[in-house]
Amino acid sequence: MAKVTELLINGVKYSVDVDGAASLLSVLRDDLDLVGSKYGCGEGQCGACTVLLGGAPRRSCITPVGDAARKPITTIEGLEKDGQLHPVQQAFLDEGVMQCGYCTSGMIMTAVGMLKVHPDPTEEEIAHFLEGHICRCGTYPRIIAAVRRAAKGLQEVRL
Amino acid sequence: MKAPNNSSTQLEPERYELSAPPAYHFGLPRRDFFKVLGGGIVVFCLLDSPLAGQEAGLARRRPDESLPHDIAAWLHVNENGEVTVCTGKVEVGQNIRTSLTQAVAEELSIAPGSIHLLMGDTDHVPFDMGTFGSRTTPTMNPQLRRAASAAREALIDLAGEAWNVDPAKLVAASGAVTDPETQRTASYAELTKGRELAKAIPAEDPLTAAAQWKVMGKPLAKVTGRDIVTGRHRYPSDIKLPGMLYGKVLRPPTFGATLTSLDTHGADAIPGVTVVHDGNFVGVAAPSPRLAESALAALGATWKSPPQPSGDELFEYLKKNVEQGEDRDRHVIGSMEKGLADARLRLEQTYTVAYIAHAPLEPRAAVAEWKDGKLSVWTGTQRPFGVRGELAEAFRLPEDRVRVVMPDMGSGYGGKHTGEAAVEAARLAQAAHQPVKLVWTREEEFTWAYFRPAGVIEVSAGVSSDGAITAWEFHNYNSGAAAIGTLYNIPNQLIEFHAVKSPLRQGSYRSLAAAANHFARESFMDELAHLAKMDPLEFRLRNLTDPRLREALEAAAQKFGWGQAKPQTGHGFGIAGGFDKNGYVATCAEVAVDPATGRVKVVRVVTAFDCGAVVNPDQLRNQIEGANIMGIGGALFEAIKFENGRILNPHFAQYRVPRFSDAPAMEVVLIDRKDVPSAGAGETPIVGIAPAIGNAIFAATGKRRRALPMAPEGV
What is the ipTM of this complex? Predict the structure, then answer.
């Protein structure tokens, strides 16, 4: 696969020099030290590595970096703006979601991507969207509550 | 067992040993300490109770050896009024960084935000056996409170001295000491300015009673929450060092395999790659993870594998391979013959539990660096000092030449007591002369970590005509002896654990064997209740006087509406109760069984839990909810499949763990006992869920499931 020399991540252009077949997750973590996206399985089965590619949630561990080269990439590091947390991040804090927190960034990224296209999901819809994510600590009900809370907050902003 | 070694290059706690210290001891040799931390007040919490000694690994010394005083933890208030607390306990998702912060905030009367906990760095924290057994809340929490309380007293005394006022008249609040008479006030920063005070305290200093708690007993959000939601927190697998290489280890095709030949030509030809071959260990280090993978793939190895047991013969194997020895764990009360003679009804059943995987979402990871003859390893483990010992042994180093640092990690559940990745990364780094990072793949974690033990449990009992259990015999093969005893009042008992040489590598798992023993015991109690034609709750209460377990059962039943509504068609209700590690739990579950597929869905769970005085109710609820969800996996579908030394399902696509759709509606009833010391809560809540589900499946379908997992393909 062709070399990738530039990536647009969180609005910043990064110079890289990697084979396009390398996984996006590996480039983020190992080449660019953006380690907020996590390795959980390397097989797209757990969701810990999820980033937004062109605004849509993608499993970065099974996404060749070549596929990500011409689209804006958003990682967990890019959600906070001027010290202000994204409403989904804030909702995870407000609902006291985290135990170990290792799954959190992937959960948040999928939730952010989902709320863009489904601004008012039910609890069942949230569970369905996040079904591909594993929280081994079992905080699922709190994650659903957090996403509901964030959805409500975002809607109030729009109204 | 080796005595714990507390020495380090910067702190030498043994120099601070005191037996019955005066209120202040300014003559302590404290310069090293303050050089590192700056001025202020430091309080050492001495370990001198037998319980505390056990925690620090001293209990296994010969009884005639006098136990030296040792330090459990220490606390420093610096000249800015900020507090640093050092403890060997580690944060693995149980949120003790938060609950211990509350403990210090409570006794030191200071905002939690001013407190920093330094945890699990073997060069900087006192020795600790490890973070397991739900021990942090009953032991480390009071120790830190004592240290904080002593620091508060020292600060009050400083203010009293400065103002020439009786310290007894002064109060500490919100990080300052105030004289209520004159309203004069001084912040902790003002009081510690220019000071270098050291104080050592025994473990018996008085503590604030739970009823008077202001910070403990209330929710406090996870103190590192913001770092986690922003991705800033660095887990062990996120650590990066300058010039670091990436490692890979060549795994044998089966357990117990021996390397018979190795061809490294292909890997050696890749620039920048170091190949290490040391006995059965083969690994590579390379400048990038992709190169390391290429180098690994280029190795040509042949192995010789011994034949070994497979999953389909597991339970037969466990029964046939009991280890004979003096260590038999046997507990007898009364006489089984008499008890059975007194019975009108008799029953015996066999239960089995599968090997299951912890599957922490962060797999084992380590970064190792050799520098000036000293080895430093950042790794995820519940036993940093244990891993330091493993490294010292593997590389024949004294322990003070090894440092293990444990950043708050991506969970463990009892599955990360060991240091495999640390040893492997260190071996690669030693050969490559550069730091090496090694992160296990998911497949490696599923295969080369260790498992929750499988087991066979045989139970038999007799019940009298009035519903009293007269005899109880319980045999556990291999799964473990934790919570093997029963709290029910039974005059004749024979309870025995039989150790077996396990076909697979096995070890601790959340609650150890308490979950398996409760599954068998509480399923069997349900069977006995049905045999005696009694309501399962009524039957339990008929045979139980323990007030705390009774209260838990009644609280859960009431919240659940036990005995009120009837389940709808295809649904069933189940109840189970239990006790372990000073926690009392009762769980009610409602399941729905799909008539077409037999798929079992846990619809609703109510858990009542009594772990003494509640330290942080919201985090406690979180632990209980999480234990229920994790427990649903082991109850219904998790099982490691293996054949002749190979794991057959080492991927999340093949080994099903609970997901969003498996989460039931949950209610938690906290029984907050302000009059009882706080017990740990990360483990015990898990013991009730599997039997409650099994009993509910029976209620729904009339089918009794006696094997965990109960419904991998439905019932």
Answer: 0.98
